[in-house]
Specification:
transcription regulation, alpha/beta, Arc Repressor Mutant, subunit A, DNA-binding transcription factor activity, 309 residues, DNA binding, 8-stranded mixed sheet
Length: 309
Amino acid sequence: MTIAQLEYIVALDNFRHFVTAAESCNVSQPNLTTQVKKLEEEIGVKIFDRDTKPLQPTVAGNLILLKARKILKEISELKEFVLTEKESLEGEFTLGVIPTVSPYLLPLFLPAFVKENPQTKLVIREMQTAEIIQELQRGTLDVGLLATPLEEKSIREIPLFYEPFLLYLPEQHPFLNRKHLIPAMLDPNQILVLDEGHCFRDQILSICNSKATKNNFGFEFQSGSIESLMRLVDKGVGYTLVPEMAVMGKEERKILRRFDTPEPVREISLVVANNFTKNVLIHAIRKSILLSIPERFQKENQYKMINWK
């Protein structure tokens, strides 16, 4: 028994004529006739008395048609409910954000998002990239906000913007006197990086064309905080790379240097599981983010995106 077969018998009851019923269902008359006959054979009951003119349902057929109409009505209501749910932002949704994005981007877009979408509650969790991917695949997380590309077949990526990497230096460092700076000038053994597991670490090493760092600072610092690395640099311990949003509007800009064009950048994207249907949520978050960041972050062609996986 199929939904189409139920639609055919209801149409036949409405029009009491095979050709007209078939036309209303956009199928051929032989196809409709065959499907009605198959349904009757499957349930072992004649739904229509074909000897009467016009066509009439049998006594049992009337009961079956009553049920069929009820089922089709409920199916229609279910489809309408699903469509409404897809377009609704009402409810609670989980957003996973990597630690090198959340302290800088969330304050920029979150207040406007909350104001524009009062019916939506975002439960935001700081998570590393691997955790976000895992929970998206399990269905325990709705949306992720992180650096891409991920190259995960089960994940859909929605690129948002391209954030430049800046060189953060101690005062009086020789690089501060240079007008032109390229990644090849960097010494991987002088760079402070985040702990393993952070994609930002892998991106920095990729910029330096290095797989690891071997510093002689006299200590090993396992950190997930860009701010901690910056404070160490302030005390003359090496140098580091920072995402531009981490230093926007701060006094530290005097000890920052940009790389020559094309600047190395990280791609920041929203990510969801392939079967995620709440596109209206993606559009709402994306809109709020794009309105909160510098327009130049959206010009991909002027940058060099860093692949890190």
